[in-house]
């Protein structure tokens, strides 16, 4: 039975991350937005502190340990394992509250972590995940999206041609978070386009591999401090050892959509994390606006009453976003399928983030748009109903889960 009461461990972690978000993240938030990057000195500092963007948790590890220890402990400590998704969403909400773009810039495997953790061989996990939390900040990345394959990734066009000792990759990836500075990216490609999803494979491509380059860093409306890169693979040779899971992994799943499954499995873990960040953004905008309304609105007037009604509606939707997110995380923790819940919370929290930030901007009037935190959050939150699958796609996923069972094909 789900309980929304936080355990002692969860409370302690929430307090720690909130403190970090308030006193370490917020002070560099507006500057990083202006610079369109997080200052290097800050990244060095947090790397030394052991704060990372890890497989699923954002912020200092749930157990309060370093990144390297996290991977060892998550496998060993049953207490952490039992609640790793819950701990992740609690941490993500606080980091979204602090600054979502800075949060995505934290060193660590990022979105590249879950496919390596979930599908990699023991040797690959050690090789690719063992590099974080050491002498200098390092990043991993997840490269699925292409110019012609966003929502419908079954149409991906990057090819992987089998040659002696490995594969040759050709193609382009767009919108890849931390893709420009990543030590490695998990890149999805097809060995045979005629096989559709069954032809997909996931490769770990390391920085410096000949034929692998960064063609552009995007200048974005929001999330400016978070690096978003375009990547090119031109006759890029990737050795067999870098095929995620090894060839047997795909042979065993010859009847299923193999590499596609690797790509999708990531989302059931990461969508609740993204939803939690959107909830944190909404909460930050709400709190800033609440303070403003308390101080600046004339009390007892009709406009004050209207503002209070709007603020109450925001609080209600923020709470609903959090509860949906916690349900998805909880199901993940007890090992139940949570694709429907992960999609639901992502869609709901993304929409709530947009609605709350827009309403806050209106309540604050001209003050809200003049270099104010709410204006930045309004720009940042838009992508939360785009990446990890747009809202429309989340609704399709939910519909498939609900109505396919009744024999309807969607
Ligand atoms: C800041 C940022 C960071 C990102 N980071 C990463 C990353 O690290 N790695 C990565 O691989 N990708 C990343 N992405 C890409 C992101 O996942 C895609 O942008 C997203 O999946 C949508 O794809 P698209 O942009 O091609 O839109 P499209 O798929 O072209 O969709 C356009 C519109 O059509 C709608 N639509 C499409 N198909 C349907 C349908 N069947 N039914 C109803 N509506 C539909 C969509 O909902 C959307 O509104 C990032 C994107 C951004 C903006």
Report on the structure:
This protein starts with 7 loop residues before the first helix and ends in a 7-residue tail after the last helix. It folds into three domains: 100 residues, Butyryl-Coa Dehydrogenase, subunit A, domain 1; 116 residues, Butyryl-CoA Dehydrogenase, subunit A, domain 2; 147 residues, Butyryl-CoA Dehydrogenase, subunit A, domain 3 (Up-down Bundle), CATH 1.20.140. A four-stranded antiparallel beta sheet has the order 4-5-9-8, with no helix packed on it. About 5% of the residues have low confidence. A hairpin with a 4-residue loop joins strand 1 and strand 2. The protein is of the alpha+beta class and 410 residues long. It contains 15 helices and nine strands. Flavin-adenine dinucleotide (FAD) binds next to strand 3, strand 5 and helix 15.
List keywords for this structure.
410 residues; alpha+beta; Butyryl-Coa Dehydrogenase, subunit A, domain 1; Butyryl-CoA Dehydrogenase, subunit A, domain 3; 4-stranded antiparallel sheet; 9 strands; 14% strand; binds flavin-adenine dinucleotide
Topology:
Elements: H1 8-35, H2 40-49, E1 52-53, E2 58-59, H3 67-76, H4 78-82, H5 84-98, H6 100-105, H7 113-119, H8 122-129, E3 140-143, E4 159-163, E5 166-177, E6 184-190, E7 200-206, E8 212-217, E9 228-239, H9 246-252, H10 258-296, H11 302-333, H12 339-364, H13 366-369, H14 373-381, H15 391-403
Parallel strand pairs: 3-6
Antiparallel strand pairs: 1-2, 4-5, 5-9, 6-7, 8-9
Helix pairs in contact: 1-5, 5-10, 5-11, 7-10, 10-11, 10-12, 10-14, 11-12, 12-14, 12-15
The structure holds flavin-adenine dinucleotide.
The site of flavin-adenine dinucleotide (FAD) has 21 residues, from β3, β5 and α15.
């Amino acid at each position: 039975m789900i309980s929304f009461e936080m355990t002692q461990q969860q409370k302690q972690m929430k307090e720690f991350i909130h403190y970090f978000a308030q006193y370490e993240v917020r002070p560099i938030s507006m500057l990083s937005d202006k610079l369109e990057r997080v200052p290097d000195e800050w990244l060095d500092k947090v790397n030394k502190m052991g704060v990372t963007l890890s497989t699923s948790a954002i912020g200092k590890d749930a157990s309060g340990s370093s990144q390297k220890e996290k991977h060892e402990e998550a496998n060993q400590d049953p207490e952490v394992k039992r609640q790793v998704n819950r701990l992740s969403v609690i941490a993500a909400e606080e980091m979204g509250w602090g600054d979502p773009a800075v949060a995505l810039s934290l060193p660590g495997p990022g979105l590249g972590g879950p496919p390596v953790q979930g599908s990699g061989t023991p040797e690959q996990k050690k090789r690719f995940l063992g590099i974080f939390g050491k002498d200098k900040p390092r990043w991993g990345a997840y490269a699925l999206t292409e110019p012609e394959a966003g929502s419908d990734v079954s149409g991906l066009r990057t090819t992987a041609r089998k040659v002696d000792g490995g594969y040759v990759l050709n193609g382009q990836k767009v919108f890849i978070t931390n893709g420009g500075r990543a030590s490695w990216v998990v890149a999805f490609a097809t060995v045979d386009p005629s096989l559709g999803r069954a032809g997909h494979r996931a490769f770990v491509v390391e920085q410096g591999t000949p034929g692998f380059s960064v063609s552009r860093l995007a200048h974005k409306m929001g999330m400016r401090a978070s690096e978003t890169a375009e990547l090119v693979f031109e006759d890029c040779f990737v050795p067999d050892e870098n095929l995620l899971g090894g060839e047997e992994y795909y042979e065993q799943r010859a009847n299923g959509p193999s590499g596609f499954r690797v790509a999708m499995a990531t989302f059931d873990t990461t969508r609740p994390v993204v939803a939690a960040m959107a909830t944190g953004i909404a909460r930050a905008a709400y709190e800033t606006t609440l303070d403003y309304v308390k101080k600046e609105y004339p009390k007892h007037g009709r406009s004050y009453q209207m503002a209070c009604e709007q603020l109450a509606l925001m609080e209600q939707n923020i709470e609903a976003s959090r509860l949906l997110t916690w349900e998805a995380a909880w199901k993940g923790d007890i090992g139940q399928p949570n694709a429907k819940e992960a999609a639901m919370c992502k869609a709901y929290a993304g929409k709530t983030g947009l609605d709350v930030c827009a309403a806050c901007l209106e309540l604050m009037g001209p003050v809200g748009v003049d270099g104010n935190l709410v204006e930045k959050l309004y720009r940042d939150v838009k992508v939360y109903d785009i990446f990890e699958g747009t809202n429309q796609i989340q609704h399709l996923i939910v519909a498939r889960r609900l109505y396919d069972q009744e024999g309807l094909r969607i």
